[in-house]
Amino acid sequence: MSKKWWLHSIKIIVLISFIVPMLAACAISDTVKEQYPLESVNGSGNQTSYVYRAADQTVPEVAQQLIDKKKPEQQSAESTERMFLVYNDEVIQIQQAPDDPADTLIEIDSKEYVRNNYSSSFLEGYLLASVLSDLFDNGRYGHGNYRGYSQKDVYKPQTTYHKPTDQDLKNAPPMTVNRTGKIFKRSKNADSSAVGTGSSGGSSGSTGKVITGDSSSTKKKSVFTKPKRSAPKIRMGSGRISRRR
């Protein structure tokens, strides 16, 4: 097999190694967003809480749907009133809707939101001590009073819930990975035909040639090509012809 084939295979493997974790991280949030309407939003940045409504479904039914989609790191015991699913970067609280017991509310909280709003003592009745220790950084966080959207008016979060705006609908579900990047704009004078050819003009008959110089100037300098030999210099009167070195 050619060296080119191996390099192409390595690039594909590296690309997959980046894409698969990101897709897995967003799988549950995407499932909820696609199946249920967004009811309320709270927080911003990496501290967000999105609440969805599952009409005419019980808490265990909704929880099982999400578990079948992706197994959580931990899940609380089955309950008709409230259940928790802990994933890598988010905690999902599934609770009976207070305004309509036939409906279920699905609250997707980022871990930063949980750390800064929830009470660790409240979650002790649902999650393992080892999970809580990791979630609240060994007691550094977890001193809030929040207990979930169904009790937001009693155990208030740090910020206020609101009905989703158009921008909220575009952003939901919350991102689980902070992403940064740069965009490079190609010069309007660039020759796109030369990309990948290793040549200044895109010709298949010329390779390994690099041209530098001002794009607005007609004079360009070749870096790696040998300079052309000049015409022989003739010295008048000597009767000899010598070639310039």
Automatic annotation (TrEMBL):
InterPro entries: DUF4247 (IPR025341). Residues 218-232 have a biased composition (Basic residues). Residues 146-245 are annotated as: Disordered. Residues 206-216, 234-245 have a biased composition (Low complexity). It comes from the Bacteria. It holds the Pfam family DUF4247. PROSITE patterns: PROKAR_LIPOPROTEIN (PS51257). This is DUF4247 domain-containing protein. It comes from Paenibacillus catalpae.
